[in-house]
Structure formats: structure tokens, C-alpha cells
Design goal:
Distance between the termini: 21 Å
Helix content: 25-40%
Radius of gyration: 16 Å
Largest sheet: 6 strands, mixed
Strand order of the largest sheet: 4-6-8-9-10-11
Structural class: alpha+beta
Order of helices and strands: EHEEHEEEEEHEHEEH
Number of helices: 5
Strand content: 25-35%
Amino acid sequence: MVQAFPKSLSFEEFIADYGDRDRYELIDGELIDLEPTGSHEEVAAFLIRKFNVEIDRLCVRWFTPTRCLIKPLGQSTAFRPDVAILDKGAIANEPLWQQEPIITLGSSVKLVAEVVSTNWQNDYARKVEDYAALGIPEYWIVDYLGLGGRQFIGIAKPPTITVLQLVEGVYQGQLFRAGERIISPTFPSLEITADQVFAAAG
């Protein structure tokens, strides 16, 4: 995210004007232009493919929407995750889903992943807080360029995948780097390495 716009928007205004424009999200009334790169999209697509293989293998009623928004309650905020895995059974309780692909309940989400770009502060701080508050059980921060702050990925700033698991309302994280197999609480049999994710960027 590299471009911001000055006008403060309500959630309703954002949905009306930008809801179907995939490059925008809303944070505290501020319109944010995501401006994803090609490499960013390749990494997200790789993850979606791998997750869908596991979903099929497990025969669970989960799916990866082509686009959706996650709206924390009581905020003029609408996150547009790079990858989301939704529970088809649980979304029946979503009040907005039949009109718009908008998620307001953490119980609808099995896992969310953000592929880090210039907006790394939001991915490592703001979204950690809000996704935890919603009760989303697993959150991946995929920092294939090593852009995040040193307090998050280390002084050398290597490419890092952070997998956060919600434990008693707080995320507990594990870092995965080159040469390591990623461990997912949601998909314990997932066979994917950090190197494979990083290589997906081309």
C-alpha cells in the first residue's frame, strides 16, 4: 500500500464506491490503494492452490473466495485479505454475505494470509490486532521480500513467513525461513516449505 487518499469514508461509502474494486481497502476511514505487484499476486495464487489441495483432501466445506472483505465491528475499516479460507457452513450466519462478499464474524474464517508489500506495518500490527479481536484462528504474514520491521523478522531481515495461532484470544507466532517446512495448525499435513513460497515470486 503506497497511496492514500485524504477524504474520510464511512464503510457504506467505501462499499458503494470501491467495494468491487479489488485494489482498495479501508482502514479507519482512510482509502488505501493496495497496488499489488505481479510477484505479490503469484505468491498469493500459489498459497491458494496449495490450500485448495488440502481442502479437497480433507473433504471439508471450506473454500477460498476470489474476493471478500473482512469488516471488524464498529469500525470504518474493511480489510481485503490476499488469501482467506471460509467455512461454508458458518457463513450462513453472516448478515451481509448474501448481498456482498463481506465477513463480519471471525467464526466464518478458518485462516487468513497477507502477502507483505509496502504496507508491512498494517500486516504486522493493525491486522494482527483486528484479526485476533475477530477470533480468526490462524493468520499468515508472508514476507517474501523481508520488508517487515526488525522487531518482527530479525535484524538481518530475511524473507520470513510468520504463522500466528490464536491462543486464548492472543496470537502466538512461529517464524519460518529458507529451508524450513511451514507448520499450520489448520492444515497439519500441509507439505509446503518456505522456499517454495519464496520461489513462487519468480
